[in-house]
Amino acid sequence: MKTGKPQFNTIRLLENISIGSAVFAVVLCVLIIVNYIQVKRADPLNTPAMSALVEKLQNDPGNEQIRQEVRTLDLLARKAFFTAQWQVRTGGYLLFISILLLVSCVKAIELMQVKLPDAPYGKPALFWENRILKRRWLVYSGAGLFVLTLLLAWLTHNDMGKDLETAGNREPQSVNRDAGSGIRDQGPGNQKPAAGNSDSVKASPDSSSNILHPASDYPSWQEVKLNFPSFRGPGGIGITERTNIPTSWDGKSGKNIKWKTAIPLPGNNSPVIWNDRIYLSGASESKREVYCIDALSGKILWTSTVDKIQGSPSQVPGVSKETGFAAPSLTTEGIRVYAIFANGDLIALDMDGKKVWAKNLGMPANHYGHSSSLIMYRNILIIQYDQRSGPAVMGLSGKTGEQVWKTSRNVKISWASPALVNTGKRMELLLSAEPCVACYDPLTGKELWKLDCISGEVGPSLAYAKGIVFSVNEYSNLSAISTGETPKVLWENNEYLSDVPSPVATDKYLFLLTSYGTAVCYDAAAGTKYWEHDFGNPVYSSPMLAEGRVYIMDKKGVMYIIKAGKEFSMLGQCPLGEGSFCTPAFTNGHIFLRGDKNLYCIGK
């Protein structure tokens, strides 16, 4: 039986395609393997040129020309990193497609070819068995090369993430990738996206009716805005409406320092305030405490030890120095105060420091330590718990600690804190973690919208003003997103990025601060850059807006006060006298600053 000419031509075409696919796949495998060897041999983020410039800058920190060269070289390295990531991902996709095409063509040829008739005496021809055997060896060899290549591609991606982490742990003044709050590490190879639909809400609004409480059990939003109940103030967006804020002080001489109080245990959380009481936490490897301080005198009114919590792990979590064991800021609604620690211990205390309830949320699965701060909406305690396994956002009853809702999230590790905003139509809960900025109903946990726009292990929290959400992360993008049922990216920029400080915005301006100490002002709506200014010192604290001024405190404890406008104007430089990682808190006429060892009250 002979094969017809059209069928023969089709077989020849398929053979040519399969050969081309095989050659292309082999070339891709070789390129990916060579790329892996190059990554292992050289660190593109720590080149001799960069090291030399860093050394020069350390010897001559005031040299603006060298500083600019470092920035330029760092920007090139960042672009090279994105290009390399794209090449690895694209190479993997093309390799998979070429193998799929090869297998499809070979299978089609086998189906179209006529089987070889049996040899005499009913036995198959030996040469056909040999062909099959040789083909098997070819298939096994190709499959082995394919698996090896995919493994090396994964290792390349993983090693690049580790290179970023290593580069990020250099001295902050050196380059644009400082360590802080333990918040970076692209490292996509290190995490696996959690399974689960982002709309997976464990408790519906109806089923929570026995947990939620009447309006008398929580303050109005206006009352919340009169206090400073969470990280970065009401709603967690870096804006306070308090007035008569000081613009001049000196910690060493005592000028305008009303009092300072030593905090027993270390902590990188920022002060939260309700009426005339300030709340902080501190922790070491073996001890965790919550403090209540009188805002008028600085006296520690009570200390509550956090221990004997059911389910609390016996082992100590791994944390970075910049994160510590008490990084998340507390929150309060004026009825209870809530604190969370690096080992997943969560506690609610009444205003006299007595435990109301406590539980452990499970040991946080990340490599720097849990840092996301708490926030309240009405009587619901909201926790962003984006860990390596089982990332989720959850709402608990403030009164009982019972779960009101829990929404699984298909995201990577995040150290960002949640934000609550009133869009004019509704209250929205905003969260940031790779790959998206997502919006939820704070009462039910239902996902309202999400938009993929961010990558890496996210540290900075979101900014918001006039219907626009601003997200940023180092080695990713600065994105302006319009909110609503169909959110969209209005503009993007990657010239200056932050891995620690969160941005802050007005209806006209966006202020971004890098952790190496450069402040940048953009047009909030269009993304036009108005100005940039280098303070010369690293910054881990997030900027705050008060009375038309931006308050920025560097790691050494110097507060820079600048005008919130399209032209740079320095209004003051105020030294605290000790270092600080923490964001300031405000009441009428006062600022509260947490240093490395003390809490300060500043007033006119």
Task: Tell me the strand percentage band.
Answer: 25-35%
Task: Tell me the name of the CATH homologous superfamily of the largest domain.
Answer: YVTN repeat-like/Quinoprotein amine dehydrogenase
The biggest beta sheet, please? 5 strands, mixed
Compute the CA-based radius of gyration. 29 Å
> On the 0-100 scale, what is the average pLDDT?
82
Considering DSSP H and I runs of 4 or more, what fraction of the residues is helical?
10-25%
CATH topology name of the largest domain: Methylamine Dehydrogenase, Chain H
Residue runs with pLDDT of under 50 for 5 or more positions:
118-129, 161-214
User: Overall 3D geometry?
Assistant: globular
Number of helices: 5
Number of domains: 2
Structural class determined from secondary elements: alpha+beta
Count of β-strands:
33
Which strand order do you get reading across the main beta sheet?
1-27-28-29-30
* N→C terminal distance: 103 Å
CATH class of the largest domain: Mainly Beta
The CATH architecture of the largest domain comes to: 7 Propeller
